[in-house]
Inverse folding.
């Protein structure tokens, strides 16, 4: 049998504040590790997408300087300017 309990953020925080310190550390460590993994996954996804956009425009992200990369992304973000193609 499976059931779901819906808790507010405040209820979760209140619960965590009631558990022993070593368990709090375990909870926070687990959450931090998961957040880090999700962040790394998002970075990899973004890098793959920007490489594809570069390739479509005849550019190579890996050979671009940091300044060129910043300029390229800046052009992509600002719709009022055309990206170098």
């Amino acid at each position: 049998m499976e059931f779901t309990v819906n808790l507010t953020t405040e209820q979760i925080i209140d619960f965590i504040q009631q558990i022993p310190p070593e368990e709090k550390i375990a909870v926070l460590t687990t959450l931090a590790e998961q957040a880090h993994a999700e962040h790394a996954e998002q970075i990899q996804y973004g890098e793959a997408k920007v490489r594809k956009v570069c390739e479509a425009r005849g550019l190579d992200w890996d050979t671009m300087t940091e300044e060129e990369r910043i300029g390229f992304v800046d052009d992509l973000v600002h719709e009022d300017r055309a990206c170098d193609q």
The helical segments are 9-18, 21-56, 66-77. The chain has a mean pLDDT of 91. The CA atoms of residues 64 and 70 lie 10 Å apart.
